[in-house]
Write a structure and sequence with these properties.
alpha/beta, globular, six-stranded mixed sheet, homodimer, 11 helices
């Protein structure tokens, strides 16, 4: 049995959609058990609405909730009985194999590092975001966990990201690119210039060189490595530019009777097309390099997103991703040592 | 008379659209003179197509052309008789007040720094990009000229950008924001944390704090200050996300007879709406802090973009922007000295 803990109190639609997502997950996959963490009465009331396989859904009481606008570090420190802290402690103690939350992202990042803890050998645990491209999906990391990273961190991100994309998302030989301001090898800031040759020397990843930001939405690489400040800017530009353009489009469509009529005609076709530009079917944003997978699903997640994220945690565990990460980092150390001897 | 030099050989539509743009500019504004720089025969052939006011359009011969894919530093060094090098030399010698080019951006940046040269007191000359927002236009700087900038550089960018947006674009009290990964004051990487209090202490700009990348397309600030690596990523994400979304949309619209019909109906309304999301009517990308304004207009510029960029150079000169920049930097130094005494 794979055991996944779910923060039943996090996000805009808690606990309703969280509980429903958990119920759907255990109904879809036989060998998982979900631990729902949250306020007893609220969660029980939701659970009553469904029937689900005996013993596969367990309520773990937690009296506190970390709100979206709370200061991450303070919240994690002071709310010891919050659904988030309780859930991550389960992963740390090995009582759960993964943790899913739609709550406060900052608190989740802090808790991941301080409560769940890193795998031995991992220098920094990156926040990986699954971003849509015209060709499918790419993994951007670090999307916001550790600013001012060093070259060795970026190399580890590349290794962990490759393993994730190959074994969880199912891409063979994922192309690894480093975000840069040009594609020539001499381009870049100090960090990129130092990291580039290190990535080139990695024998266990398929490094394809620099990727300019403009090529990211077109699927120019499958694993996109960068420092967290840059990664966060990329992630938020996706949201911002996408949202602003679609907003303008809607406004334009509503501006005249003629265009309103046109909007009715194009709606089904556009809906179908934009489905390809939606990464949520691959699950939430994974934090890699921790003792168990921590997945952040967006704040307004519906049951279907929660189910997807739970199944993502299950695949992560089944595929032994953390064992593969350990092996890869050990191999990396071996390469490094060999190089130092020469 | 204001004299603007134009690189007649740069960009995909040279020399045709460049020459036409220059002709239109002198016809639109009485007190400017345009120096067209390029291969004599090619430019003369284009000039023959138009009539224009006597003596207001002058051809300056230059036998070489820097191609788009050439290595910037090598090209500037070796092609002394290229339209770009000749044009920038005119600005350096004070024989032209500004320079417009649609050619190799990298070469233009290098030439700006090495040929035109900086105003005394300017530590780094940033590349400013005018980006569209749902509220109008914003100036992003540095959009790619100087990676790994220091806090004092960012403060100068903020001052120069404010002056530009106020006196060239015509916004009163432009809001200055620093790109950050959160809006709380303690957020950010080392550079942002160090720069934030310095911007806060500037009395001559309207600093409104951090701006997250997602708020940039919605017009969250008028002058957006960041280090060049980040700025270049922002600029290219605009292109990439915008292009990918519009591409998908077109594909979706062409997918069925029904949606094709819808597309015909919505076209005029959308065309009108997207006009607001287009910064090109404000001219090309200005390089600030140089002895004269250097404007990069995009590679596939049409005559209308060239005209716009020439008029932008004229406004820059008329408004005495460089004198204002000098005053502002001197005032900044005064503030700094006063602070150091305390």
């Amino acid at each position: 049995m794979i055991r996944i803990a779910v923060d039943a109190m996090g996000g805009d639609n808690a606990p309703g959609e969280l509980v429903k997502g958990a119920v759907d997950a255990v109904n879809r996959k036989d060998d998982i058990e979900v631990l729902l963490i949250g306020r007893e009465e609220a969660v029980t009331n939701e659970l009553k609405k469904y029937t689900c396989p005996e013993g596969r859904l367990q309520l773990i009481p937690a009296s506190e909730v970390i709100e979206t606008d709370e200061h991450p570090v303070n919240a994690i420190r002071s709310k010891k009985d919050s659904s988030m802290v309780v859930g991550m402690s389960l992963v740390r103690r090995g009582e759960a194999d993964g943790f899913v939350s739609a709550g406060n992202s900052g608190a989740l990042l802090v808790g991941g590092q301080t409560i769940v803890g890193r795998i031995k050998g991992v220098e920094r645990a990156p926040f990986g975001a699954l971003i849509p491209t015209t060709k499918g999906v790419a993994l951007l990391l670090d999307a916001g966990a550790n600013v001012d990273a060093r070259p060795s961190h970026l190399v580890q991100f590349a290794r962990m990201g490759s393993i994730y994309m190959e074994h969880v998302v199912g891409l063979s030989r994922p192309r690894v690119g480093i975000v840069n301001i040009g594609t020539e090898e001499e381009k870049g800031n100090a960090l990129v210039k130092e990291t580039f040759p290190l990535l080139k020397a990695c024998t266990d990843i398929h490094f394809t060189g620099s990727i300019e930001a403009r090529d990211i939405p077109y699927g120019g690489a499958d694993v996109i490595v960068c420092e967290a400040f840059t990664g966060n800017v990329i992630l938020k530009m996706y949201e911002g530019v996408g949202g602003a353009l679609l907003g303008l489009m809607k406004e334009g469509l509503m501006s005249s009777l003629r265009s309103k009529l046109g909007a009715l005609l194009i709606k089904p076709a556009l809906k179908e097309t934009f489905k390809t530009f939606d990464a949520s079917r691959y699950g939430g944003a994974p934090m890699l390099g921790l003792r168990g997978l921590v997945v952040k699903t967006h704040g307004n997640s519906k049951a279907v997103d929660v189910t997807q994220s739970i199944l993502q945690c299950a695949t992560f565990h089944e595929q032994g991703i953390n064992e593969k990460i350990k092996e890869s980092l050990d191999a990396g150390k071996g390469e490094q040592a060999a190089e130092n001897q020469i």
